[in-house]
Amino acid sequence: MVNKSLTLLFVLAFAATPVWSANILALFSTFSPSHLIVHMSMMKTLADQGHNLTIVTTLKPKIAPHENMTFIHAPASEERLKGMNEYLEKSSKEKLHMVQAMINSLTNAGSMLGIGYDFVVDPKVKAIYENPQVKYDLLILGYLMNEFQLGIAAKLDVPAILSWVGVPFTFVDDSVGNIYDPSYVPSITMAADPENPTHSFSWRIRNFGSWLVFKALGLGVEYKMNAFYEQAFGNDSSMPSYDEVKQRVSLLFYNYHSHSEGPVRPTVPQSIEIGGIQIKEKPDPLPLDLAGFLNNATDGAIFFSLGTNVKLKYFDPQLIETIYQVLSRQPLRIIWKWDDQEPKPGNASNIYFHNWLPQDDILAHPNTKLFITHAGKGGVAEAQYHAVPMLALPVFGDQPGNAQLMVTSGFGISMDLLTLTEESLEKGIQEVLKNPVYRNNVRKFSDLYRDRPLTARQSVIYWTEYVMRHKGAYHLRSPIVKLGFVARYNLDVYAIILLILLSTFIMFLIVLRLVIKTLRARQQTKAKVKRN
Ligand SMILES: *[C@@H]1O[C@H](CO)[C@@H](O)[C@H](O)[C@H]1NC(C)=O
Ligand SMILES: *[C@@H]1O[C@H](CO)[C@@H](O)[C@H](O)[C@H]1NC(C)=O
Ligand SMILES: *[C@@H]1O[C@H](CO)[C@@H](O)[C@H](O)[C@H]1NC(C)=O
Ligand SMILES: *[C@@H]1O[C@H](CO)[C@@H](O)[C@H](O)[C@H]1NC(C)=O
Ligand SMILES: *[C@@H]1O[C@H](CO)[C@@H](O)[C@H](O)[C@H]1NC(C)=O
């Protein structure tokens, strides 16, 4: 009897939670710590679910050891990183002319692609696909203009999932066949205007221009990626072509929630939104000293962080002094993300300086009243999730776009970091703290953001396992990914229609001329007959 009920219990337990441990290989050749945070949240979700993850990264991720995660570190070369850092420094020091900014982002894309290539041929990474020790079931690839890395999925003969850290832009959309419609889908450098969804002519022309620039850039990037693919995998005659290998993508996860973040956009079933995956559903306890500091902040607290990519030392020291003067005289307490290696600007008792801060947990704290941010996608999303209004100081990349979107959504204001004065910063801080409109808007958003059928974590688990259960789930794939450029945009059909219209018109003209000629001839003969 006891035995029987034990067996029953055993069976029930297994039926409730199917035990399935897949071997998943994950590759993240990103050089951005904030990207890595998003990817790692996904990894942790899958590891907690019981899957066995082998994770290869260029940066060392800041994540606690986990029994189901094996980390392999394949760092980028000093030379490549130098190129990247020079770009970041340049963009943070000066306001660049548009052409200069474009040239810079092109060279930036160059070093980015180079880092991705070095990664593929790194001996540690090569060992995984030339000589695998375990049978992998799936490849997860952090997207960063690195589709040539999908060759590794072909080598291992596994399906691939792409993971992107934000709202998709044209390149990411193309990887699964999402329609990018420039008449209303904002380009990555543009913000949508939620008050005016039918966009003005000037908005559409700028958006179209931005889209065209990205398309042109995409041609160059594709050319380079094809070359890298040939260089890395071309020696193996059993490998498919680069175009075929791109079709190995089973799914795209991206860190975006269109229902609340808007605007909704056309996406294919292969695109799965996991907006807010990096945000913990329940905050962790803060370190003791920080918890004391925040709990005692009876007037509230301001969290000031310019993220991980922007180093304050790149800025004019006068700017730091300005910010310090304003923050040190606030009645609120300040938590300031500060590079520990640099001397602090002062010792004000209301400021807590630290290099590594649990941003998410700080924003979740009820005493946090304002977030002063560089408007990185991750930070903005966390503040929105926890309903904290913002003052944005965007610097480069997607930050101005994020900040503009945050402002048009009514969650706060944005200011130019390079022209900041004590008066303007003070005024900005008071505006966001005292005017309730920002807090109310962000609260409304937060309620929408959390209301979903599956949480971001549940989506990651469900869809990742779905792909493995259905051997790549290629039935989800949009036919668009197989179409060439001409077929994709129906150019041949339009050309034929135009041809038919044109030839009909020409025929009409010919007939008309003939009729006129005949009529004239007849008239002339009539006239002649009369005269005679
Ligand atoms: C690791 O995976 C196993 C199943 O393979 C699971 O039982 C265990 O709970 C996982 N570990 C953690 C810390 O989640
Ligand atoms: C889990 O992955 C690691 C690293 O690839 C590997 O050494 C180990 O054998 C795997 N475990 C199982 C149970 O497959
Ligand atoms: C492919 O072959 C060429 C010429 O034999 C060689 O230079 C190159 O290093 C090889 N590439 C790889 C990835 O093995
Ligand atoms: C917080 O306030 C309590 C009681 O006033 C005090 O004992 C403690 O030292 C304070 N902690 C910090 C970090 O200021
Ligand atoms: C802050 O205090 C430390 C230690 O007391 C001191 O060395 C430093 O010079 C002070 N910094 C400023 C800007 O006053």
UniProtKB/TrEMBL annotation:
Superkingdom of source: Eukaryota
Keywords recorded for this protein, A-Z: Glycosyltransferase, Membrane, Signal, Transferase, Transmembrane, Transmembrane helix
Regions crossing the membrane: 493-516
Pfam families listed in its UniProt record: UDPGT (PF00201)
Signal peptide: 1-21
CDD domains tied to this protein: GT1_Gtf-like
InterPro entries noted in UniProt: UDP-glycosyltransferase (IPR050271), UDP_glucos_trans (IPR002213)
GO terms assigned for molecular function: UDP-glycosyltransferase activity
Protein family membership: Belongs to the UDP-glycosyltransferase family.
Protein name in the entry: UDP-glycosyltransferase UGT5
Annotated source species: Drosophila albomicans (Fruit fly)
Gene designation per UniProt: LOC117563633
